[in-house]
Amino acid sequence: MAKHFLRRLGVFVAVLVTSLFVVSAQAAEPIKIGTFLSATGPASFLGDPELKTLQMYVEKINKEGGVLGRQLELVHYDDVGKPSNARNFAGRLIRSDRVDIIVGGSTTGATMAVAPLVEQARIPFVSLAGAVVIVNPVKKWIFKTPQSDRMAAERILSDMKSRGLTKIGLISGTGGFGASGRKQTLEAAKKMGIDIVADETYGPSDSDMTAQLTNIRNTKGVQAVLNFGFGQGPAIVTKNYAALDIKLPFYQSHGVASDAFLKLAGQAAEGLRLPASPLLVPDSLPASDPQKSVVQTYKSEYEARWNSSVSTFGGYAYDGLMMAVEAIKSAGSTDKAAVRAALEKIKNHVGVTGIYNMSPTDHNGLTPASFRMLEVKNGQWALID
Questions:
Q1: Which of 279, 305, 349, 368 is the most buried (most CB within 10 A)?
Q2: Whole-number Å distance between alpha carbons of 225 and 313
């Protein structure tokens, strides 16, 4: 009987040791953060600071001990701004790399191209793109960090209305971001009692928008002009606007909220207004603002590491990564369903872009109030509201 007991004990110990080894091996495996970004190509002004942000904070988190006792591993692909590439890379992240969560998608086009794949695979995805269609209607597995184009439109139109400007000329790009921004502006204006009396567009490869701006200038009753777009287009519009010596108040969308835009537009940008993250004016925030320390720290760390100006786009990546980490910690594992549920329950998360409050009916968690209105004064961003 003693031999039988010892044999059973030996089997039990062997199983226990094997189990502990498996658990230990699993615990040692890195948590894989997948990303596809437009690090090069026409949308690199978005993807480059996003990638640099993810790289530096994955490194920082790992130096501080990782998450749940495990290191983070960033698995990155450059989609060069092409939605078809984004879909292919997302498939690779899910099937071959077997990542735990995806934080990426520099553009609306790239994000929407992978949306069906992500939903089918049931993997949490935090997008860094702006259009409202990404989360409206709500998609179970998809979240996003930037304010929507609808929020930007409402913030701009509210500022116009406070200045007594109720008849505006709209010019927008025909790409995914510009087209969606145009649609949201038209809808918001109608609800807010503002008339769009001129409506012009330009293509992504257009190099001169003088004709469209001349049409707007010649439209009777125009009191202000709004351009909705990103990339090179808005800088061209801004320069053409100044060359035509149009004296009407001029607005841009949050799609150009970076120091890079100021360099592209130069003196022509003087006086224009746009809604943006407080990241561009951290020192102007009052000490009582809960975002002040977050944006100041991110700005100083990014600029010290990369020796280049910070941008709101990198801030989107920072917020996406930090909320992913918070959700994984809250879930206590990388179980995809648990992480998704934890993302949906995030409350009062102070980020670079705003203070996030997610819910089953809101996978963005921000309001128009998270935008600050900025104006270009003496070649610099200035906080006006």
A1: 279
A2: 24
Report pLDDT digits (tens) over 78-87. 999 999 999 9
C-beta of residue 354 within 8 angstroms of C-beta of residue 370: yes
Taking the C-alpha atoms of residue 149 and residue 172, their distance in angstroms, rounded to an integer, is 12
CA–CA dist 370, 210 (Å, integer): 33
Q: How many helices (H) and strands (E) does the chain have?
A: 12, 14
Domains of the chain: 29-147+291-367 (3.40.50.2300), 150-284+371-383 (3.40.50.2300)
> Is residue 4 classed exposed, middle or buried when 0-12, 13-18 and 19+ CB atoms within 10 A define those classes?
exposed
Residue 9: pLDDT over 50: no
- List pLDDT tens digits, range 202-244: 998 999 999 999 999 999 999 999 999 988 899 999 999 999 9
107-125 per-position pLDDT tens digit? 999 999 999 999 999 999 9
Q: For the segment 337-375, what is each residue's pLDDT rounded down to a tens digit?
A: 999 999 999 999 999 999 999 999 999 999 999 999 999
How large is the angle between the packed helices 44-63 and 292-306, nearest 10 degrees?
A: 100
| Tokens standing for residue 202 | 């330009």
d(CA 276, CA 62): 31
The pTM score is 0.86
Find residue 218's DSSP bridge partners. Answer: none
The answer for residues whose C-beta is within 8 angstroms of residue 22's C-beta and 6 or more apart is none
